[in-house]
Amino acid sequence: MSKFIVADRQTDYLLPPSVDDWLNQDQLARFIVEVIDQLDLSKLTREYAGRGSKAYHPATLLGILVYGYITGIFSSRRLEQASYDSIAFRFIAANLHPDHDSLATFRRRFLDELSDLFLQVLKMATEMKVLKVGNISLDGSKFEANASRHSALSHGHIEKLEVQLKAEVQELLALAEQADQADIPTGVSLPEELKRREDRLTAMAAAKAKLVARAEERFQREKAEYDEKMARRAARGDRQEARRQAPQGSRARTTRPWINLTDEESRIMPVAGGGFEQAYNAQAAADAATMLIVATGVTQAPKDKEQVEPMLATLKAQAEVLGAVECLIADSGYCSEKNIKACEAAGIEPLIAVGRDEHHPDWRERHSEPAPLPDNATPVQAVSHRLKTKDGRARYALRKQTIEPVFGIIKSVMGFRRFSLRGLKKVTGEWTLVCLAWNLKRLAVLRPQ
Length: 449
Known about the structure:
Elements: H1 28-38, H2 42-47, H3 58-71, H4 76-85, H5 87-92, H6 100-109, H7 114-127, E1 135-144, E2 152-154, H8 155-177, H9 190-236, E3 258-260, E4 267-270, E5 276-287, E6 293-299, H10 308-317, H11 319-322, E7 327-330, H12 337-345, E8 349-352, H13 379-388, H14 390-396, H15 403-412, H16 424-446
Helix pairs in contact: 1-3, 3-6, 3-16, 4-6, 7-16, 8-9
C-alpha cells in the first residue's frame, strides 16, 4: 500500500462559484480591494470613461498595479498573465483579464493622479489612528533607470562617433552612385542604412547641444554658490584667500558630462558596493513610529544635500491632512548649514548627522552628556551637540530601524530595483506608485485587528 498522497489530476473539481470564496479572509489582496474601494477615484472615472467599447474600471486596474508592485510583478504583460494564473489577482480583477496594453496605458496616463491617491491613503491611516506624524526619517537610494549606461555618450565621444558616421555616410553614398553594386552584402538596403546613420547623427547633434547647455547651467550654479561663499567670508571679515578660483568658461569638455540617448533625463551615479549605473536618486521620508512613507521625491542629483528643502515643502503642504512634523532625522549626506536653518525656519527640529560616527565608541560616551554648548555656536555645532546627548542619540537611532529597512524591503522583498518608465516626470509618478504599494502593504500589518 502506498504511503504517499495520490495526486489525481483526472477528477473534476467543483470550485466555488464566487471568487470571493477562493481567497482566505486575511489575504492581502482583500485588504487592497477594501482600501481602493474607499478611495475617491472620481477624477479617474471621469477621465477614463473610454471611447467606443466599455473600459475596465480604474479601481480594478489600480488594484492590479498596486498588488503587482507589492508582489514584485511590474511588467504589464506579466500582470495580464497573473490575472489567469494567480487566485489573488483573479480576486482583485473580479475574474476579468485586462490586457497588457490597457494596464500599461492606465499606468502612464494617470501618474499625476497618484499623488492624490497617495495622500488619501495616508489620511486613511490617520483616521484609523495608525499614523500620527512626529519624527520623520529621510533618506535616498539609487534605482536603475530604464536605460543602459553603455548608451550614455560624452561630448568627446559624440564628436568621435560623428566623424565615423559621416565617413560611413559618404561611403554608402559612393556605393549608391556606382553602377555595379556587387560589393554590397546580400540583404543590405542602402537607403535604410543611410537613414539609420543620418537619424543617429541628428540625435547626437541634439544630444551635444543639450550637453553644452547642461554644462553651462552647472557652471552658473557653481559660480553662484562660489559667489555666495565669498560673500559670507567677506561678511565675517575672513580675508583668507579662497582655496579655489571662481569657475571660468564653459565646462562642456572639462567636466565630462554624459547624456543617455535612451533616457536623457537619467544620470550616471555611483551606487552602493562600488561602480556606476544609469540611475535616478529616489527620496522618501518615513514616519519613525510606523515606517509609513509620508513624502516622496525623485532627483537627478547623485547627492542628497539639496533634497531637504523640497521635502520640507512637501511636508508643509501635507500638514493640514497629516499634522505638523516635529523632527527631521537624516544622515550626514543631508548636512549643511542651509538645510539646518531651513528646518528651523519651518518649525522642525533638525537631527542631521554632521559626520560619520565611530562604530565602537568608548562606553563612557554612550552614558554621558556632552559639555555645555558655547553661546556663539553655529547651527551645525548646535546640531552636533544635540546628537551627542542621550535623547539625541536615541532619536537618531530611529533612522536605522525605520527608513533604511523601508528601502531594503522595497528592493529585496518587493523586488523593485529598476524603473519601468523613462523621463523624470514619469519616474517620479512610478516611484509614488511604489511608495503607495509599500504603504498599503505596511498598513495591512498595522491595521487594528
